[in-house]
Automatic annotation (TrEMBL):
InterPro entries: Aldolase_TIM (IPR013785), Radical_SAM_PqqE_MftC-like (IPR050377), rSAM (IPR007197), rSAM_sf (IPR058240). Pfam families: Radical_SAM (PF04055). Residues 30-264 form the Radical SAM core domain. PROSITE patterns: RADICAL_SAM. It comes from Streptomyces lunalinharesii. Keywords: Iron, Iron-sulfur, Metal-binding, S-adenosyl-L-methionine. The keyword 4Fe-4S does not apply. This is Radical SAM core domain-containing protein. It comes from the Bacteria.
């Protein structure tokens, strides 16, 4: 099989994770997740009006001691990749630097999703240990940034974030990404504000900073359904991305997310699923101060909570929890980036049972973030 770094299905066929892939594919409880999303804190220093986690912010954090223990437990569980994310801003926790060191020195791949305001304070660890850092910018100018990503006093910290990204671009070993969420908002007075007109400008800035990729994404609503946009906005975004394509090459990529592709294909906000168990839930999980959840789409959903990482060890939670408490047919009618992975795991299970499936060739690992 030919691997594509952007294809989550292909990532299932990497040899180091194959034993646990087979466990998930055949309906066996996996011996541990391959990837963990970890929210160190629910605190955030920005006040983005469209924040999908807005209702969950500023409600708790792990103590530095417990966060360090969690890092050790992830190493113990032989997790292959950890994404520091939120929830809140992961770099806002003073224990995150230690987590980066522990995981990095253990050889675990680390991804970081950040607003970029605190990169400077964590620069050494991010540069040394992060496999990738994706900065949510969502603008190409300071004024548009202020409209969509203001700080708690309503100010723009755009210049600070871009300056921090330049510092990391000079020092990094892993990849640096510039993320642009296409947003439109109607104000109480009827005025419509949008950022879609700055896609090209942001892509050019990402290239100038020294980023490895520029990614555009569509918005989700609170239920994780992709928000549909007007034809003229989608056309504008696509026209700008066509112009930005000349920037690609020499280590710089223009990346289209699956959510933007779904808008182009007019698939609508609902993604139907005909399977009752999420096999990917045996391979990925979400750990937050408020609980451990089946996946990041269900952050804060009590019906998808499988444990409490504040008081319980992760290995014990994994050993005793029921990852089948979520029924995708009923509970996951939103756009899920790993829907195709679930369909592929079902096919792998069928092939395994029939004895027709060959194991992947050794030595072809390339990206643990399936």
């Amino acid at each position: 099989m030919t691997f594509d770094r952007l294809d989550l299905v292909s990532k299932l066929y990497q040899p180091s994770g194959w034993p646990r892939i087979l466990e998930a594919a055949t309906g066996t409880r996996s011996s541990g997740p391959l990837v963990v999303d970890l929210d160190p804190t629910t605190f955030c220093d920005l006040a983005c009006p469209e924040c999908i986690s807005g209702k969950l912010l500023n409600q708790g954090r792990f103590t530095p001691e417990r966060l360090a223990e969690l890092a050790g437990e992830l190493v113990e569980m032989k997790v292959r990749g950890v994404v520091l994310i939120g929830g809140g801003e992961p770099l806002a926790h003073r224990g995150t630097r230690q987590v980066l060191r522990v995981l990095g020195e253990a050889g675990i791949a680390i991804g970081v999703v950040t607003n970029g305001t605190l990169i400077r304070q964590n620069l050494a660890e991010l540069a040394a240990y992060a496999s990738w850092v994706r900065v949510s910018v969502d603008a190409g100018t300071s004024e548009t940034y202020r409209l969509f990503r203001p700080d708690r006093k309503g100010r723009s910290v755009f210049d600070k974030v871009i300056g921090n990204m330049r510092l990391l671009a000079e020092a990094k070993r892993g990849a640096l990404g510039y993320s642009f969420l296409v947003m439109t908002r109607q104000e109480p007075d009827g005025t419509v504000v949008t950022n879609h007109h700055e896609v090209l400008q942001a892509a050019e800035l990402a290239h100038d900073i020294g980023c490895d990729y520029f990614e555009t994404k569509a918005m989700f609503d609170d239920g994780h359904h992709v928000i549909q946009v007007a034809d003229e906005i989608l056309t504008s975004v696509d026209d700008q991305l066509d112009k930005a394509a000349v920037l690609a090459g020499d280590g710089f990529e223009i990346v289209n997310s699956s959510t933007l592709t779904s808008l182009r294909n007019r698939v609508g906000p609902v993604q139907e699923k005909d399977y009752h168990r999420c096999r990917v839930a045996e391979l990925r999980t979400l750990v937050t101060p408020s609980g451990v959840y089946v996946c990041s789409y269900h952050r804060g959903n009590a019906g998808a909570r499988i444990g409490d990482a504040v008081t319980e060890s992760l290995p014990e939670i994994w050993r005793t929890s029921d990852r089948g408490i979520v029924d995708p047919t009923r509970d996951c009618r939103f756009h899920c980036a790993r829907h195709r992975s679930n369909l592929e795991l079902e096919e792998i299970g069928i092939g395994t049972t029939a004895g027709t499936l060959a194991a992947p060739e050794p030595g072809t690992d390339y990206d643990p973030f399936l």
